[in-house]
UniProtKB/TrEMBL annotation:
It comes from the Bacteria. InterPro entries: Metallopeptidase_M50B, Rip2-like. PANTHER family: ZINC METALLOPROTEASE MJ0611-RELATED, ZINC METALLOPROTEASE YWHC-RELATED. Its cofactor is Zn(2+). This is Site-2 protease family protein. Belongs to the peptidase M50B family. Its main location: membrane.
Length: 266
């Protein structure tokens, strides 16, 4: 078994990530207490910061699993520090997903960590590395939705409930999209080791365009409607209704015409 050897500095949590966590905590408190003069601004900062935290954890899960599967180069690349600036494509992994959240309230998956797959032996290890990221989104979704399906919302301010509901929607969409067996996404990475060499060779040129293809397909109104019907059904099964996610997105996009019905902070 390959020993994962990394320096302590390679595993030290980045101040950049700690700063993002601090923003999440402070703006979460502001959303809870109604401290902010405009609740939408607090919700926007809280959800955005929490979303970036989840993106960092998603990529960390890929990297950590790869490290223990045999790719001991992961530490030197800075992936274990949770610093988003160390990612191979920071634009795709952080900036683009945040822009899509701002535009349409969808948790867009991104690709970031470069794994040296030739160091890893065994198809199950390769599949697990790909699965680790979206499974992190699933875990994040469980945490966000727990107060709803545990009926533990007594005393939780409505604005904070709305923010959690919208954040949960992002995590569920990110997990669902990542699990799609489309080249370039984690879902395909899970099944790729089990495909024949000829199939993998034929599909490989499509990988850089897989995410763009998914985005283009989601622009089709009929497909978009079916996709969000599935998301809404999943959220309803977790005791989150359309009103809560709608108000969460409405508060998040504070720069648009705010629906006063959703703004309940004093």
């Amino acid at each position: 078994m390959t020993t994962a050897t990394t320096r302590h500095s390679d595993r030290r949590i980045s101040p950049v990530f700690l700063g993002i966590v601090a923003v999440t905590a402070v703006t979460g408190w502001a959303t809870w207490t109604g401290f902010a003069e405009q609740p939408g601004v607090a919700v926007f900062l809280f959800v955005t910061a929490a979303w970036i935290v989840s993106l960092c954890l998603h990529e960390y899960a890929h990297a950590r699993t790869a490290l223990h599967s045999g790719d001991i180069s992961i530490g030197a690349k800075g992936y274990l520090t949770l610093n988003p600036l160390k990612y191979t494509h920071a634009l795709l992994s952080i900036v683009l997903p945040v822009i899509f959240v701002m535009m349409g309230g969808i948790g867009l998956p991104g690709g970031a960590v470069w794994i040296e797959r030739n160091r890893i032996q065994g198809r199950w290890k390769h599949s697990l590395i790909s699965a680790a990221g979206p499974l992190t989104n699933v875990l994040f979704a469980v945490v966000c939705t727990a107060p709803f399906w545990l009926d533990a919302l007594d005393g939780v301010p409505a604005d904070f409930q709305f923010a959690l509901a919208f954040l949960a929607l992002l995590q569920v969409t990110a997990a669902l999209l990542n699990f799609l067996p489309v080249p370039g996404l984690d879902g395909y990475g899970m099944i790729e080791p089990w495909l024949s060499h000829n199939i993998r060779r034929q599909v490989e040129p499509l990988a850089p365009f897989g995410l763009l293809l998914v985005i283009a397909i989601l622009w089709i109104p009929a497909v978009n409607g079916v996709f969000f019907d599935v998301i809404d059904a999943l959220l309803r099964s977790l005791n989150i209704d359309d009103f809560q996610t709608y108000c969460g997105q409405n508060l998040y996009r504070f720069w648009t015409d705010t629906n006063e019905f959703c703004s309940v902070s004093p």
